[in-house]
Design goal:
The chain is mostly helical. The chain has one domain. The chain is about 75% helix and about 0% strand. It starts with a helix and ends with a helix.
């Protein structure tokens, strides 16, 4: 029994920090130029609905659904799984989240976002801005290879943070349930980052 108590998080990681971050570079190189395609689709989607605030929420949830499905099925199952046996479970989590967001997008078509009307909206907007713009910039500054940057819609952390931001910006039925998987993932990610840094 004492032997089991000696285990730490590092005993469950089968890869180094160098391997982990190099995976992002290999991943971005393999899927290029899908990144540009997604950015174009997102800009077109929100430009189309900018004069119809009630539709922005459903459009945002739909975009998040696509992002979670991509991260779950492509990043986790096809790339991260090559270095982490648990990635299959993470991929399943993200695909389930994609289904929940798609259902929410269908049910929430009449709601408008509340970006800066209250504290909750401010926090949500800041999280969204951080996930989409600030997070990748910080990664680029910290890494030797800019292709190791984590991007919204393609890697788990900024995608999960953006989801929480959207949920705070909008009054969505079942927001607590929709926030569960992103929150769990971010806790797992922080534990992984902490272990890799030791």
């Amino acid at each position: 029994m004492a032997d089991y108590l000696d285990y730490t998080l590092s005993n469950f990681l089968l890869f180094s920090a160098e391997t982990f971050y190099r995976l992002f570079a290999l991943y971005h190189r393999a899927i290029w130029p899908v990144q540009l395609t997604l950015a174009t689709v997102l800009i077109a989607l929100f430009y189309r609905h900018k004069k119809a605030p009630s539709k922005i929420v459903s459009a945002g949830l739909f975009a998040l659904s696509l992002a979670f499905f991509w991260v779950g099925s492509i990043y986790h199952l096809q790339f991260y799984a090559s270095i982490n046996w648990a990635a299959h479970y993470f991929g399943g989590m993200f695909i389930v989240q994609a289904c929940l967001l798609l259902l929410a997008a269908y049910r929430q078509r009449s709601l408008a976002p509340e970006y800066f009307t209250n504290l909750r909206g401010w926090v949500g907007a800041c999280l969204l801005l951080y996930a989409v713009m600030i997070f990748p910039v910080i990664d680029i500054l910290l890494r030797s290879d800019w292709r190791q940057a984590q991007l919204f819609g393609f890697t788990p952390d900024p995608t999960a943070i953006a989801c929480l931001g959207v949920l705070l910006c909008c009054r969505i039925k079942g927001a607590g349930l929709l926030a569960l998987i992103p929150t769990v993932w971010l806790l797992i990610s922080r534990a992984t980052a902490y272990t890799l840094a030791r």
